[in-house]
Design brief:
Helices cover 12% and strands 35% of the residues. With 344 residues, it is mainly beta. The chain is elongated, with a radius of gyration of 35 Å.
């Protein structure tokens, strides 16, 4: 009989029996979409582009050159919001007159004053570095190599221990950390209460430097000092000329050693100097000291490299205006040539 509450078949007739099963429900077939070769190629290009961009950023960081020889005394501390106060770059100790170098290769895009402060801006593709305050020795449009001098530090940016160079790095309007562009050799941040001590130490060191400091520099090669610092009869041109350093007699291929810890800021060649090397040794008191080596056979260091006192940096030669194998050594204190013999 029928279930309760369901109508039954008409009286005297059996319910029809179906012998054919209903066809199974057909669902639309969904085909798995396989990415096309073009789609895969595009994705691969995007991934590789990202990796190359990352590699370029890292390479840029390790290839940079410190703009001055002094330490970082105030680090990068950008504000949480653009309109708040903060420190949008880094400050490096730099005495007035100290040479300032391009951190990266690029093109000078601005030379002028901003709010009364002399500023130099160098473009590096999609980023730019800013240097202030700087007495510029470059012009807009000038192409520069990393480590090439752009001018000299000047007063106008005070910091613990004296004056500083402010270095900025931007991509568009976004400030980046300039200390990642080069090896800082260990950032040294000075507390505000260290100002008096730092000033006294600087004054003491400056007084020592003003009268020379024997032993401050290592003599780069063994040998006797022949031609000294000052006016002399030029051995090739036979005219009285200023001799900007000392000539130290030594055999060809003798190892040349760094006179003190420092950073290589110049490796070049010209017809007069031959193979030329410049090492900046940073701040010593209120003085920025650098050494220049001429006439070498070759050098084994590169711009931006940190070197230690006594480290081999090249070999003695007789390149440029030279009458025989020897090393010419010059010393600059705050950009001014001085007698190297007073520091050896």
């Amino acid at each position: 009989m029928a279930d309760e509450g369901q109508p039954g078949p008409p009286c005297g007739r059996a319910p029809p029996q179906s012998t054919i099963s209903p066809p199974p429900e057909r669902r639309p077939h969904r085909r798995t979409k396989v990415p096309s070769v073009t789609t895969l190629r595009t994705a691969l290009i995007i991934v590789l582009t990202g990796l190359l961009s990352l590699t370029a950023t890292v390479a840029e960081a390790v290839d940079g050159v410190p703009p001055v020889g002094g330490p970082v005394v105030r680090g990068f501390d950008p504000p949480a919001q653009k309109w708040l106060s903060g420190h949008r770059g880094i400050d490096l100790s730099a005495a007035p007159g100290a040479p300032v170098f391009a951190v990266l290769a690029g093109t000078v895009s601005f030379v002028g004053r901003v709010g009364g402060t002399p500023v130099v801006v160098i473009s590096h593709g999609d980023t730019r570095t800013t240097y202030e305050p700087v007495n510029a020795e470059v012009v807009v449009g000038q192409e520069l190599s990393a480590g090439e001098q752009i001018g000299s530090a000047t007063t106008g940016h005070a910091c613990p221990g004296g004056t500083c160079l402010h270095l900025g790095w931007l991509r568009g309007q976004t400030y980046l950390d300039p200390s990642t562009l080069f090896d800082t050799g260990g950032i040294r941040l000075l507390p505000a209460d260290a100002l008096a001590t730092v000033r006294q130490l600087a004054a003491d060191r400056a007084a020592q430097l003003s009268s020379g400091s024997p032993g401050l520099l290592l003599q780069p090669v063994g040998g006797r000092i022949g031609s000294g610092f000052g006016m002399r009869m030029h051995p090739i041109f036979h005219v009285w000329r200023m001799h900007s350093g000392v000539d130290i007699g030594s055999g060809c291929r003798t190892p040349i050693r760094a006179a003190a810890d420092g950073v290589v800021v110049g490796v070049s060649y010209d017809s007069a100097s031959g193979h030329r090397l410049t090492i900046n040794h940073g701040r010593l008191g209120d003085a920025d000291l650098s050494t220049i080596y001429l006439h070498a056979r070759s050098y084994s260091v590169h711009i931006g490299q940190h070197v230690k006192r006594g480290q081999v940096v090249g070999q003695v030669g007789s390149t440029g205006w030279s009458t025989g194998c020897h090393l010419h050594l010059s010393v600059r204190v705050n950009g001014r040539l001085v007698d190297p013999a007073r520091y050896l």
